[in-house]
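Explain this one:

_____
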Amino acid sequence: MISAIKQQTKDLFAELNRVDWPGKEKVMSSTGAVIFVSVFVGLFLYVADLVITWGMKFILPHH
């Protein structure tokens, strides 16, 4: 069992050495894109919620 764990660890490090890690500039660019899309989707959902809420109040008036 110990030899299997050692072999898995050895294989893991070998695989990690083959990974093409992105540079700092690529990571920062991707992070900016994720933040932009997240804010856009959040604002879209907020506005959609307001419109749906208004529509429901219009269709189903509260007594």
